[in-house]
Design brief:
magnesium, alpha/beta, 8-stranded mixed β-sheet, Nucleotidyltransferase, domain 5, globular, 2 domains
């Protein structure tokens, strides 16, 4: 069964094509920095091995996805001869509300629900929806399946997902913690449990990318997570503020900002973008190395927020077997991992600096030999997780 996975983020688009049940992709690719200067496409074919790279302006996800589809069916380098060779497309959709707790066949009604949730995930659900519509037009015979980032967090206990607001705001308006990046947290926590050979492991999964979140996992289930009603809360992110005092919103409104202004400010102009003028951590690192003290402070703020959550989640887990770093920043930024793990010896967390800075890639442990808590770097593979859930749904599992 040929399954194409489309994973669209706020400024990126990743994809993989699988011939399931094999977990080895026929091709993989990614588009980075969509909508900004320096955007690029990287398309890798597995057999025969071939890498195609393009540096060009990708204005939006529509342009990006159409280029991906052209690469897949290229007369010379393509891996499918016709769009009809694709049996199913698995789409990452960020927000499913309380409506979806598992992989779901996309119908007109499902699409309307995804649209209704646009206000709760304004950077993601519109893009996810757009990619679904493009895929429906390009692959009219393929089954379209939605995998929701919120699904993994449906196991949170009520005392963790409820806000201290009037009851009717939950029962009538469904205002609660939903959590996001669930596909990634699910994948890496399964890998950590297998590595530890401990089904009841207590884990903290730290997903650090343009969007960032942290999740407490007990026995393979999410019990708390940093993102809440929308993907805005929690850690400092590329353009999102993360946690702030709600009174800041009222203050801005009293100073003449409109609700749309505040929404745009917190989602698109804050975070590292607001602190430094750059949303990409690679650019911030370059600025730091050039002596930019503003960038250095922002970097410290970013690491400090993660460390606060590590402490909080170690408390609610009442113990800890491992912490996991994943996603683009988590997997690749050794300095940031060191800043987060420093002075956590009271939690039995001790980093091996040499291992941490090793050029090795892939799944690895970077804790000191005598550290009771393991420190794992586990490359996330949301695409494989989406493909597996898509396959299982269509197989009736």
């Amino acid at each position: 069964m040929h399954i194409l996975v489309i994973n669209s983020g706020s400024s990126s688009l990743k994809y993989q094509l699988f011939n399931m049940p094999s977990d080895i992709p026929l091709c993989t690719g990614q588009i980075e920095r969509i909508g900004t200067e320096g955007s690029f496409i990287r398309h890798q074919i597995q057999a025969p091995a071939q890498l195609i790279e393009r540096n060009e302006v990708i204005a939006d996800h529509d342009v990006g996805l159409r280029q991906v589809l052209e690469l897949l069916a290229d007369p010379v380098t393509g891996v499918v001869s016709t769009p009809d060779a694709i049996d199913a497309i698995g789409h990452r959709v960020v927000h499913g509300g309380e409506s979806f707790a598992s992989a779901t066949l996309i119908t007109p009604a499902v699409k309307e629900t995804i649209k209704a949730l646009f206000p709760l995930a304004p950077l993601h659900n519109p893009i996810n929806y757009q990619c679904i519509e493009i895929a429906e037009q390009t692959f009219p015979k393929a089954k379209q399946i939605a995998i929701f980032d919120t699904a993994f967090h449906q196991t949170m206990p009520e005392y963790a997902f409820r806000y201290a607001l009037p009851q009717e705001l939950y029962h009538q308006e469904a205002i609660r913690v939903y959590g996001f990046h669930g596909t990634s947290h699910r994948y890496v926590s399964k890998k950590a449990i297998a590595w530890l050979e401990k089904p009841d492991a207590k884990l903290i999964s730290i997903h650090l990318g343009n969007g960032s979140s942290i999740t407490a996992v007990d026995k393979g289930k999410s019990i708390d997570t940093s993102m809440g009603f929308s993907p805005l809360s929690g850690l400092v992110m590329g353009t999102r503020s993360g946690d702030i005092d709600p009174s800041v919103i009222f203050h801005l409104l009293s100073r003449g900002y409109s609700p749309d202004d505040v929404n745009n400010l917190l989602n698109k102009k804050s975070g590292m973008q607001g602190l430094t003028g750059f949303s990409d951590m690679r650019d911030i690192r370059k600025a730091m190395e050039a002596g930019d003290q503003t960038a250095a402070l922002a970097y410290e703020i970013y690491a400090y927020r993660v460390k606060k959550y590590v402490g909080a989640y170690a408390a609610i887990l009442n113990g800890l077997d491992a912490i996991i770093f994943t996603a683009g920043i988590g997997e690749n930024d050794a300095t940031l991992r060191e800043m987060i793990c420093t002075q956590l010896t009271f939690l039995n967390i001790s980093l091996d600096s040499e291992k941490n800075r090793s050029p090795d890639r892939g799944l690895r442990a970077v804790n000191a030999p005598d550290s009771p808590v393991r420190i794992f770097i586990i490359p996330t593979n949301e695409e494989l997780e989406i493909a597996q859930q898509t396959y299982d749904l269509l197989q009736g599992k």
